[in-house]
Specification:
This protein has 523 residues and is an alpha+beta fold. The protein is built from 9 helices and 30 strands. The strands form 8 sheets. Strands 20, 22, 23, 25, 28 and 30 form a 6-stranded antiparallel sheet that branches. Strands 21-24-29-26-27 form a 5-stranded antiparallel sheet, with no helix packed on it. Strands 6-9-8-7 form a 4-stranded mixed sheet, covered by helices on one side. The N terminus is likely disordered.
Length: 523
Amino acid sequence: MKNTLRLIPLCLFFYAMLAAAEPSGYYSSAAGKTGNALKSALHQIIDNHYALTYAQVWDALMDLDEDPNNSSNVLLIYSRVSRDKNRHGGASGDWNREHSWPKSHGFPTESNLAYTDVHHLRASDVTVNSIRSNKDYDIGGSVVSGASLCRSDSDSFEPPDEVKGDLARGIFYMAVRYEGGSGESDLEIAEDPGSTSSGTPQIARLSTLLAWHTADPVSDEERLRNDKIYYHYQSNRNPFIDHPEWVQSIWLGGNTSGWNSECTHESSPNYPSDYPNDYNHTISFTKSGASKMRLHFAAFRIESGYDNVDILDGNDRTVATYTGNKGAFTSVEVSDNTIKLRFVSDYSVTDTGWLIDALEWTSGDTAIPPSSRITIFQDEFASTAFNPRWTTGGTGNWRVRLTSSYGPRGNYHAVLDASSNGSYSASKLTYNQDLSAYRDIQVEFYYKEYSDENHSYDGLYIYNGSWIRVLSFNNGPSSYTKYTVDLSGYSHISKIEWQQYDDYGLTSDGVCIDDIQITGVPR
């Protein structure tokens, strides 16, 4: 490092090299505290750190983010690429100083201490850093160019799995270190990305960061980086690397009177080779003598059409169901001495599941809400890629595609027609899921034909041990029309299929389908 950096007393330097651990008594004033009291105590401990200049940050990152396999390089946080330490700056191919807590969210100028705090600054590729911009951390969308392990959409950025916990703990540090005193911003972690517009001292999404903290535990590399920052640069530590359990105490309970802490995190496995086999996991809480129970929890990355979280009572009756992207903590009550969460996933992702904050029981009685109709699957065909639940096929010159032609209701719709002019085509779009866990199933969708000839084969089919046509499209509409098909008379449905048949296999004949929703009542 350059001699412009802080000079460390020689004895302290050798102590750091030998001990490289949390100093004895460093957190003594936080002992026994929980919740907001713990947060306040930790703030006092890590406050007033030695501040580097922004120029000194270059040298610090060369040390802190050094590639363990090549001491001449740094390992970039998002792309995970090893790059020459000396190749830093602002040009394409350089690495620069990434503020994992975006500087526009509370400390826009170098005069703000948070601007140069290396607990959250990381070496990053210039281009990838620009793509991340000041987006919140959350589950992203498309793969990031130059960082294939990252994803990004219009308002969020998802880093690689191997550093998700590292970045989350850096964010937790920032929210404790900067509490608004001495002219500093009061940094807070929000749940709603809509509250973190540029200029506000907030970042999201809390439930996602909590999940990442649990899924990617503290590593030896993180501990070493924490030690270096303390002994060589700032003289303060990230408490959530030394004590990961304090994250739960501050952000997952510990400050709600009368609640029994039952904090845990459950996530689905990564099983792309097994798709479409369901992943079904249930966690149960029981309190002897209770007549009513309440659970405080958050579901994260609940993919609409893939996953759902069911809340059940002790008799496995469904009280509530959560589908679609969630995150905000909510309370659910059952009139029983047992409450269960059942997580069902059909998709090969690992960052999905729930966070459980706390459990409460009372002596009061309320009626158990009846099971209600829930959305099992919905698809608006928002891109040119089919959801994995769909399969396409047929015979002859069959063709099934997602396209923006023929006047879709939204951006895209599914089209069943012929791939070329020929003798015939039979095109099929098949939804695959065993629906035996539901009753009173209904299928809603929009349908229209374009120059399609009438044929007795065209229609909606289900597989119930054999194929059954439940709706005919003979003389179908030329403009989009909504259909609702009641399948309550059928059990053990495992497939739902749309079929289009063309005797002549003409590309100008076909049908369009959009806005599909399958609902039912859990048995």
